[in-house]
Amino acid sequence: MSARSSKPHEVVERALELSRADGCVVIADEQSTANLRWAGNTLTTNGVTRGRTLTVVATVDGKEGTASGVVSRSAVTPDELEPLVRAAEAAARGAGPAEDAQPLVTGVAPSPEFTEAPVETSSAVFADFAPALGEAFARARAGGRELYGFANHELVSSYVGTSTGLRLRHDQPNGTLELNAKSPDRTRSAWAGRSTRDFKDVDPAALDAELAVRLGWAERRVELPAGRYETLLPPTAVADLLIYQMWSASGRDAVEGRTVFSKPGGGTRVGEKLTDLPLTLRSDPNEPGLESAPFVIAHSSGGDQSVFDNGLPLAATEWMREGELRHLTTSRHSAGLTGLPVAPGIDNIVLDGGTDRSLDEMVADTGRGLLLTCLWYIREVDPASLLLTGLTRDGVYLVENGEVTGEVNNFRFNESPVGVLGRAAEAGRTEKTLPREWSDWFTRAAMPALRVPDFNMSSVSQGV
């Protein structure tokens, strides 16, 4: 019998039956992907994949506390199921008490579709997109542009079962489109990306038209030195900065005095104003177009994530409300340690509360400044201030008297997302966006463009 001939919910039930531990959590993730890749206005590859990963969490009670063992394996056959369960139990018995130990979650209503077959993607997801992409190739070729990029669609059905009776399921679609346009001599490059659930809301022709304009801007080149510039950050760049801020917003780390959210002298900055703009940073599993798992799915413990929290319901959470810090991420364990409310991470992020002005309107209201395309190679420099460094990429443009007048060189930047929020002079219209740097890990974001009067371009970069 093959690894995929057993239904996922049956595998979960069988693993729970095999368990001899005091507690058990089983997660079956059924994944399917479909993708297209292209280069030089020509489709180069396409493919479809299928896979299953099974994670078993065993918990063992002892005199000193409860220990946990976690083992994950892919393509587990029926004959390999019991050895996997035993391996998790052995790992638990060989471990010391788990610091994050909590009673396994109970009392969550089962998902009605728990026993149904997993959803799967296929090349059919590109039925409308692929012909439109072919037409974009023809227009680009006629206009002297070369298009490069890829489209990827993934569907993951996650089945979570526990020895305390939870039977939960979540289906997560995730699509990304990244498109680069280059001049034939490869000296000019522009990028655009989109996040989508089903590829019905992405338009290759519109993206190609946008990139054609940007390549036209780049026909005039202006060299600028490092320095602080009024800078317009598009939604994708804002998302990359604020996703890293969210990943760094650990309640426990803040209480222990190790992050930008630590209050001098002790405690956290919850309740402090981070920006004078009336911006709200929030996550909601039910956010339209950005829907994510409505309960915790934790394949491992670490930071403010705990395998003991699997199945814990998630609710809409405001991390910042009208500029005021309201919540930091916590598990049940770290909430108990810190006295902060329980607030697990949620797999989407939205910043709203700005004006209804588009990025083009913000450009038109700029005397002299820079317009970025995206950020790249972002790395942390100082966790205490959340100072990040990274590069601009695929187009930095000079704005003069409300018009883009040319392309300038790329830069290395040094900025803190918290500092950027605190100094931002304007936020535009919130729109769904694809974070370029973090698109392999986090895609569900909606952000406004930000105007920062003194963004720190710390040095000139030779990148394209």
From TrEMBL:
Picking any one GO biological process from the record gives:
proteolysis
Protein name as it appears in the record: Putative Zn-dependent protease
Top-level taxon in the UniProt lineage: Bacteria
Please give the InterPro entries that the UniProt record associates with this protein.
Metalloprtase-TldD/E_C (IPR045569), TldD/PmbA_N (IPR035068), TldD/PmbA_sf (IPR036059)
Domain (Metalloprotease TldD/E C-terminal): residue spans on this chain: 227-458
List the Pfam families.
Answer: PmbA_TldD_3rd
The alphabetical list of record keywords is: Hydrolase, Protease
Which Gene Ontology MF annotations are present?
metallopeptidase activity
What Gene3D superfamilies does the entry give? PmbA/TldD superfamily
Q: What is the lineage of its organism?
A: Bacteria, Bacillati, Actinomycetota, Actinomycetes, Kitasatosporales
UniProt source species = Streptomyces paradoxus
